[in-house]
Fold each of these.
Amino acid sequence: MRDIQMVDLKTQYLRLRHEIDPAIASVMESSAFIKGPDVRHFEEELQDYMGVKHVVTCANGTDALQLALMALGLKPGDEVITTNFTFIATVEVVALLGLKLVIVEPEPDSFNISVDAVRNAITPMTRAIVPVHLFGQCADMESIMELSAKHNLFVIEDAAQATGADYIFSDGSRKKAGTIGHIGTTSFFPSKNLGCYGDGGALYTNDDEIARKLRSISNHGMKVRYHHDDIGINSRLDTIQAAILRIKLRHLDQFNYSRIDVANRYDEAFAGCTGLSFPGRVSSSTHIFHQYTLKVKNGKRDQLKKHLESKNIPAMIYYPGPLHIQEAYKYLGYAEDAFPVTSALCNEVLSLPIHPDMEEDQLEFIIQNVLDFFKI
């Protein structure tokens, strides 16, 4: 049996090297390392896949979030609502721009932002909502967009963990995660479902003016070289990374189907285990399982993690602490016990290995060792 990885990037590369190596070599031969043709081609191909009018690539997913907030013209003191249960990038860009961060609880089963909590947090100073499509399935976007329309708010989707997931509206229509709000953002960090071999990111929008603004701000505020219409930053996707992503985009759906197969196996295996609660799946979204995240009951999460690691099975905690108790965000003034749902999740969640290249013996070994722990 091969060593078990949380994400087996090497095996995936070996499977695709006959496509990836020539793509990289082509960029090296052209020496068009910045804004080469592959960047434009990738944006066009991702537009087609996502069913969105504009894709604007950038240097990473954190920049994508920052660019989105800048393009919408938010001012210091404007309130931005997002979830307490997410990676730090979602909130740090809000703080860096001098906006007022308002964090709310997630749903305990899907892990995604609670619409009721968002509704209760809206004030006259609220300007934007940032739902995070956590672990591979969409937040309740139909309800969030209704709140947006009612209160005249912007919606920025953090879709970094859900590339390829579909949101299913009440009328049966579908849109890709990240294409429903005013702007969607994503990351191409190597471990993502669509990941490159370095850093990369992108933004999605159907609004022509927002797209123009995003392209300008991400390129030093320039529409025409050396003419600066906006205060901008330098955030570009390297051509080599774009060439790699063009290859991997062609395989994305199959990669996601493979992840779903693994998740289904886990669900079936753990269905009778009273010590575990497996990931809730909502009817309004497909789930492409960027992470397979269990809740471990009765305070045994850390013990299970140590047990698995003793068998050379990696297991990760996403996320080990609520944002509001992080040293950098204590200035927000929230009481330590202000978010009981988030705090409970941080004490219970454990993510198991999941990726498109898992082999049957690896999967059986993981499942058996999880179940053995609860028989001890």
Amino acid sequence: MYTTTNEDGVLNNYPAEPKMYYAEYPAIWEQRKYVLQGVFATLIVTTLVLVGFSVS
């Protein structure tokens, strides 16, 4: 952490910035996992909407 002082004597503290890195394209097994999560999320939302319509 480093500190600077302006001409009025006010201190400004700055945090240490993390090292940047580029994201890597997901592997094929990760892509399949994302598709499976999307399918389950869609099923849950669809079920909730249908239950909501049937109750009202």
